[in-house]
Amino acid sequence: MKKALKKANIYSVLLITTSIFIFQTKYCKKKEEKLKIIKRNSPPKIIRVEFPERINSNERIEFKVTVDEREGEKVSARFDWGDGQKTKWTKFASPEEKIISYHSYKASGIYNIKIEVKDKSGNISQIKFKIDVDPQREEGKIKWSFKTGGFIYSTPAISEDRIYIGSDDGKLYAVDKKGNLIWSFDAGEKIRSSPSVDENGTIYFGALNGKFYALDKSGKVKWEITTTPNVWICSSPAIGNDRTIYFGADDGKFYAVDTDGRIRWNFPTGGYVWPSPAIDKDGTIY
What we know:
Layout: E1 10-21, E2 24-38, E3 45-50, E4 55-56, E5 61-68, E6 75-80, E7 99-103, E8 109-119, E9 124-134, E10 157-159, E11 162-166, E12 171-176, E13 181-186, E14 196-197, E15 203-206, E16 211-215, E17 221-226, E18 238-239, E19 245-248, E20 253-257, E21 263-268
Parallel strand pairs: 4-9
Antiparallel strand pairs: 1-2, 3-5, 5-7, 6-8, 8-9, 10-11, 11-12, 12-13, 14-15, 15-16, 16-17, 18-19, 19-20, 20-21
């Protein structure tokens, strides 16, 4: 006889055994025993945790937990927030309901969260994951400013811990991320070309005197070339996969220059070349 047990519980079973001896066929003995059979159900499983994509410090965050409990038992949850704070077990609720808890982090950083869930039978499972808490920012607040001696049309370039920016005072500036001047280079004419930095930290840019420069990290000139004297170079350079540098000038030509400052070729366009070039993965220049 087979009997399916649908719910987790302790069951009493009456077991009757009959013993028949081979040499005493007329002798029959009955024995009654009570057994306790415990059916264990599977533990509840967390199938989803919902929380905001961006988490700021000192902000109250809502966490929603969805649980799969196959036997339909009520479930409870406990949260370890990873910052030394933990919650007690929540009240048991239907598995159809989302378990909700709130928390706020006082400092930015990466936190290891652990969430445990249990059913009324005492079965427990857990899930662990990490969250990245960003420092709370005041939108639009100026962190620092740096004043040059002229208008700035050049877009800054960032390399490692430095920011490079050209100015109409004819200088290229290297500034740290706190706004402190590291060095400046005087090109002798306005700089409206936005600098580009290669993998070795060499900075490339042009000026409105027809000159194109390559500087090292310390601001020293590695080389310079003159396209056509006193023409404007407003085009910002692009660096190809083979480290060739491309830029345009107001003499109507588009230039390709190697890392040693040698002009590989130039292409006459018939007009001013102000736009900055773009290079696709196949090396085609636009």
